[in-house]
Design brief:
single chain; 208 residues; mainly alpha; three-stranded mixed β-sheet; 49% helix; globular
Length: 208
């Protein structure tokens, strides 16, 4: 990926890097700050891959035989890279892209690491894709699994991710959350999506 990027940069004017570093900031606050800096506000992100590329992140696919790896990212000098697994659903790939962006922004210097870093990147991804301000209006409403399946298209996320974020921002009680998780699991929504979206593709590579 790095070699291919060097080849492309020698022949094309690729978007310059505009990825801020928010080391030491809470993931939710970092997601909100990034939305403001990138001019997204509270709008739903139309295409996560295109958003990354617009701000200079080089996005590539992993080989098809890497089922055990969801995604990974790193900085090569001043250039950020994200690699995504093409075997994942469109919704999960979007979340993976947001998760890796969290690592680039929060963990460039490697602290924290391990489970803490992964948890922070998950919190960042949830807050970036599903801002608290857009989730809170559903507090007090009856939220069924059908509601989740209908609403998830608004943010282009998986049913499970939406359930978890609704719990995290206080829309769902513990009882509602557990019931929805059990129902979603029985429906196979831990690994598959109903009415899923298409995988997002690189715009830069298509133009090249």
């Amino acid at each position: 990926g790095v070699m291919l990027n060097d080849f492309l940069e020698s022949r094309y004017n690729l978007p310059p890097c505009n990825v801020p570093l928010y080391r030491g900031i809470e993931p939710e606050a970092a997601a909100e700050a990034l939305r403001q800096e990138w001019g997204i506000g509270n709008l739903s992100i139309g295409n996560m891959v295109h958003l990354l590329e617009k701000h200079g992140v080089r996005v590539f696919s992993l080989a098809e035989n890497t089922q055990e790896v969801d995604a990974f990212s790193f900085w090569k000098g001043t250039v950020p890279f994200v690699f995504l697994n093409t075997q994942k659903s469109g919704e999960r790939s979007r979340f993976d892209a947001a998760h890796e962006l969290g690592h680039l922004i929060l963990h460039k210097h490697g602290i924290p690491q391990g489970k803490d870093a992964e948890a922070e990147a998950d919190r960042f991804a949830s807050a970036l894709l599903m801002p608290k301000a857009t989730i809170l209006p559903y507090k007090g409403k009856v939220i069924s699994i059908d509601s989740i399946l209908s609403l998830k298209s608004k943010w282009k996320v998986s049913a499970m991710a939406l359930i978890v974020q609704m719990k995290n921002v206080g829309v769902l009680s513990e009882w509602q959350y557990k019931n929805l998780i059990i129902t979603a699991s029985k429906m196979g929504l831990r690994t598959n999506e109903i009415n899923g979206i298409q995988r997002e593709r690189s715009l830069v590579l298509e133009k090249v």
